[in-house]
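Q: My labmate handed me this sequence with no annotations at all. I'd like to see what the chain might look like in three dimensions before we decide whether it's worth expressing. Could you predict it?
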Amino acid sequence: MSQPNSTLTHAHETNPDPNKLPTLNGVEHAGVIDFMGFDDKTGEVLMLMIERRPWAQAEVQLFQLQEKLNAYLSFILDGEMAEAYPDLMGKPIRIRLECATPPTNQELFFLQHVHDQLALQSIAFEVEVAAPEGTNNTCGCGQPLSECCTD
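A: Here is what I predict for the chain of 151 residues:
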């Protein structure tokens, strides 16, 4: 997978402030795109969201996920992505939520709704559960999930 403009797009902030320390990524950080790249095999722009926590605080996590999705959609639909990466204009987009644990029924209901709504915008959405400890536990960028997209 190549990244837009041959630059790694880990932790892309939608409103970066050069005076701040580097921002962490993950669902709990709504203003940060955890990872973005172009998949040469599928011809898609892949945008990852990382949820490292188990789904123990579903209401809080679903609210944070909704906020993160809104930030991703704003980046895509309001022209920020086109301005930052004009070579990606017109390419299909896939958003993948990578989770540490499988979602429960409450999360699945929400995630199905997200999938259906994004499909109306021609944006693919998928959920991937990280492999158990001791297996190939990496995210889409190839780093271990516990260290994904951190600088």
